[in-house]
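Quick illustration, no need to memorize.
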Amino acid sequence: MNISELTVRFGSFTAVDAVSLEVPEGSVTGLVGESGSGKSTLARAAAGLTPYRGTISGVTRGRVQMVFQDPYSSLNPRMSIGDAIAEGARVPRAQRPAEVGRLLELVSLPATYASKYPRELSGGQRQRVAIARALAAEPELLIADEITSALDVSVQGAVLNLIRDLRSELGLTMLFISHNLAVVRYVCDAVAVMHHGRLVESGPVEDVIGAPRHEYTRTLLDAVPRLARA
C-alpha cells in the first residue's frame, strides 16, 4: 500500500497532515505515536472509514480489513462467533462452516467455538475472533489498531505471538498501530512515527530505535526504559 499526501480534516482541525507512507507487500509496518497523534485516524482513512484528501494505491477497494482496539465493541453480541466470521468469508455459502472452523483453528481457537457468543469469551479470545473475521475476507492489507491495548497484560504476549505466526504463515501485509515501541519492535519490519498529525520519522525498526533522529521519537523511547538502553 502506498499513501501519498493523505490529509484528514474535521472542520478546522487537521488530524492528519499530508502524510506519505509505504507499507511494502508482505511486510509489517508499525505506526506509533501517543494518543491524539493521528495514527488511528490515518488507519481509518486507509480502511475507507473516514473521508480524506490524497492518494491511496496498491490495494483493491474493499480488500482492506481493520481489527480494532476493543474486540467486544466490534463484535455483534447477538451474533454467534461462527456467523460473525462467516459474514465476510469469500467462499460459497455451503463451504462457510468448514471455513469458519479453519479460521478459528488458524487463530488457535477450537472450531467448536463457532457456536459461542462474544460474552462467553475472554478479551484475548474475542480479539482472536476479530482477527479471524478480518482474515475471512482475504485482505490485501490488514490494519491492527492498538489490538493489545484493551487486553490484560497476561494475554497481550499471546496475541502478539499470534500476529507474528500469522505473518509468517500467510505472508500478511499489515499496518500495525501502537503507542508502544517495544511492541512495534517485536512484530514490525519498519516503523513510522506520528506527532500532531505529521510523520516525523520513519525507517527500518532497528534503525529508528537504535538511532532515533527526531526528539519526539527519543521521548517515546524514554517511556520504554529497556528499549532506550538496547
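The CA atoms of residues 61 and 133 lie 18 Å apart.
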